Amino acid sequence: MSTERAEDLARKLSDLVAEARLDTSFLDGSTQHIYHNGAGGQSVPTRRVENWNLDAKRPILGSGSFGTVRLERCQQSSSRMRAVKEIKKHDQQLRVMDYSRELEAIVQFSRPQYSHCFVQSHGWFENDSSIFIAMEYHQWGDLSRHLYSPLPEDEVRQIISQVVEGIVYMHEKGFIHRDLKPSNIMVISNGPYWSVKIADFGISKQRFLQESLNTVGVGTIGYAAPEQIGLNSNDVAMNDDNSKPGFPADMWSIGVLSMRLFTGQVPFKDLTNLSQYLSSSQEARALKLESPLKQKGASKISQRFIIDLLQVEPDNRMGAYQASLHEWLAKVGEVSDDAPNDGSNDLSL
């Protein structure tokens, strides 16, 4: 992309972010938005008022170091519901965080052409301490609530193909998700015919990276790529600016997600387990991934798909577009030729 074109896109995104800001007042017990319809010709300007209250039965959908996600109902139409994510403006050291890039991602992928891939935002608002993102609400919740046991290969493929499609769009526009995992994938309809959307794309990821680095030794590393937690192929901490995670980090996360769906477990339990993988030979790494997949009856092309994503060196991993064209994803809806024989109700606004 040329510099001139990139600057033009940045200006357009900044305009979109400004337009998505909601005219908001914080009242006693509710949040009020005023929507203005400008005059056209001889028509008189009008305005529409909406008041939103916490849902009485389930006010909080989730919480974390970033803040909370709450469920709200519209006073004017109680059947209308939304999820509102609160993001603190300051980190634990009281440093002001710049969320302009994250807001650009949210606004960019809330456009109609991306509605099948991403949870849609209905605008944002703020007070002195927090930014609030108003989003569509889906009653099925996130994918982590549905993973009671390993999934059949066709269902794994359905989910992964939809996630890959969304990541193709993000990477084409220059955005990195940085936190792909089941809790950031919303379920629109569940199996055997899955429909999912990517959520939480971009917001607050960089801010809490250092906190993750400080605690990863005693916790689980989950879906983070080695470069996201400060490791390279030689198990050496990386601190220079050139080592910041890029697009390949998302592809690693998709590989881990694929393993989780197939086997019921993430492939790397802790930092020690990941370090052993990083320092192993290529053959040993492939065997570590293939063995549990074979036990679950995964096809050979699905095993190859995952191995190509979980390459240690970021530059050696499949890119998003390449993954979208992979032979395995092309078989969505088909019974795999080489597989062993033994083998929604949407409440969005």
TrEMBL record:
Keywords assigned: ATP-binding, Kinase, Nucleotide-binding, Transferase
EC number: 2.7.12.2
InterPro entries noted in UniProt: Kinase-like_dom_sf (IPR011009), Prot_kinase_dom (IPR000719), Ser/Thr_kinase_AS (IPR008271)
Top-level division of the source organism's lineage: Eukaryota
UniProt protein name: mitogen-activated protein kinase kinase
Organism in which the protein naturally occurs: Clonostachys rhizophaga
Single GO term (MF): ATP binding
Family from the record: Belongs to the protein kinase superfamily. STE Ser/Thr protein kinase family. MAP kinase kinase subfamily.
Known catalytic reactions: L-threonyl-[protein] + ATP = O-phospho-L-threonyl-[protein] + ADP + H(+); L-seryl-[protein] + ATP = O-phospho-L-seryl-[protein] + ADP + H(+); L-tyrosyl-[protein] + ATP = O-phospho-L-tyrosyl-[protein] + ADP + H(+)
Domain Protein kinase: 55-329
